Amino acid sequence: MMFEFGRTSLNTLRAGLGVNMRYRRLGRTGLKVSDICLGTMTFGSLSGGHRVPGCDEKESLAILNAYLEQGGNLVDTADGYADGRSEEIIGKGLKGRRDDVVLATKIFFPASPGPNHKGLSRKHILEGIEASLRRLQTEYIDLYQVHCFDSRTPLEESLSALDSLVKQGKVRYLGCSNFGAWQIAKALGISELHHYARFDCLQPQYSLVCRSIEREILPLCRAEGLGVIAWSPLGGGFLSGKYRSGAAAPPLSRLAESDPATRIWVERFLTAQNFRVLSALDDCAARVGKTLSQVAIAWLLAMPGVTSAIIGARNLQQFEENLGASGWDLPSEEWKKLDTASAVPLEYPQDFQSWVESLIHGDLDTG
User: Fold this and answer.
1) pLDDT on residue 8
2) What digits encode the pLDDT tens for the residues 205-214?
3) Residues 272, 246 contacting (CB under 8 angstroms)
């Protein structure tokens, strides 16, 4: 699909899509972000070599422009995406409009060779922020996130380094990604004890086919006022309907990749239970007149505690479809059907606590 970068063509696109972007507070902060977050893992990325199929710079900039024109304001990247190319492309694309965007990036994974160029040591954090600022062509990061928990670095060391970046004005807000509930709770306690800037959001994997965060992590985020920016809301593309039981994987999909790590990522979703969820999603999409992707993302956005859903794409057409998840509400009866079809069973101690609550409070519990 050809795309013009001029203002006229962008306005035409906006009118045609009819997207009504919504904005939500990021956790307990005063920061407002759009309910659709632009994920840029595909920007500048090529297929293979432990990378998802991606798009070149021209297509990446087209997607970025379309998102901003629709009113989206939350752009998420990481220093390790496409070896830094994602940040470089975003830096080019945001020239002249940087202050209109809530720019988020992450640190943890290796950005270059060497034993100290990974993890969450003070050295890596302080050097990593400078490299990201250069690539993004900006003086500050709105939301700086640690990409994963680092079991080999004391949390105090990481949090102290992150706090110094906030005090220096290089970072406005802090977040974490792929943390367990106890790890988030410990980080919050350390930050409170030492008066450090704290994590204000979590970026977890969450979708109709990956709901395990509902047991401990999501309740913690709601209780402590952390925003939740969900990644992989389509379950690695599974909920788009591209994978069907017994059918060959479509070309250029992750499952069609020769790289074993990429294939394993999708294959874990190909279970009998998940195909039943996909069938329920098919039925719901037909009833509401939306695509499977739009309904799956809309279900997620209606979950209490969720701030925004990260959507990425390899091309503008795919991105346009996913943008259609914003600006409308999934009917409550349809949401409940999907919720029931995809529900994860409670485990101890949640199942025991639920039983005791029902036994003790019964019909008197109105909370």
Assistant:
1) 32
2) 999 999 999 9
3) no
- The CB-side HSE value for 160 (13 A sphere, CA atoms) comes to 9
Q: Among 57, 60, 139, 128, which residue's Cα sits nearest to residue 99?
A: 139
Q: Flag whether 1 is in a domain.
A: no
CB atoms within 10 A of CB 82: 22
Residue 203: domain span: 7-364
Q: Which residues of the chain have pLDDT under 50?
A: 1-16, 49-50, 365, 367
CA distance 227 to 244: 34
H helix intervals, the chain: 7-17, 57-69, 85-93, 122-136, 155-167, 181-194, 217-224, 260-267, 272-288, 292-301, 316-323, 332-342, 350-361
- The reply to whether 2 falls in a domain is no
Q: How many CB atoms lie within 10 A of CB 148?
A: 16
Tell me whether residue 324 is in a domain. Answer: yes
Strand pairing category for 32-34 and 23-25: antiparallel
The total number of structural domains that make up the chain: 1
Is residue 49, in this structure, part of any structural domain at all?
yes
Q: What pLDDT was estimated at residue 106?
A: 98
Closest CA to 120 of 174, 63, 65: 174
Q: Any catalytic annotation for residue 81?
A: yes
Residue of 235, 338, 265 lying closest to 51 (CA atoms) = 265
Phi/psi zone of residue 172: left (φ > 0), alpha (ψ -120 to 50 degrees), beta?
alpha
The DSSP letter of residue 214 is G
* pTM of the predicted model as reported, rounded to 2 decimal places: 0.89
311 vs 72, 77, 139, CA distance in Å? 11, 12, 26
Structure tokens at 284: 């719901």
Q: Can you tell me whether residue 194 is helix, strand or coil?
A: helix
Torsion sign across C-alpha atoms 72, 73, 79, 85: positive
What CATH number has the domain bearing residue 77? Answer: 3.20.20.100
| Cα–Cα distance, 134 to 88 (Å, whole number) | 8
pLDDT tens string 258-288: 566 666 767 788 889 999 999 999 999 999 9
- Catalytic entry in 67, 81, 144, 243: 81
* Separation between Cα atoms, residue 137 and residue 144, nearest integer Å: 15
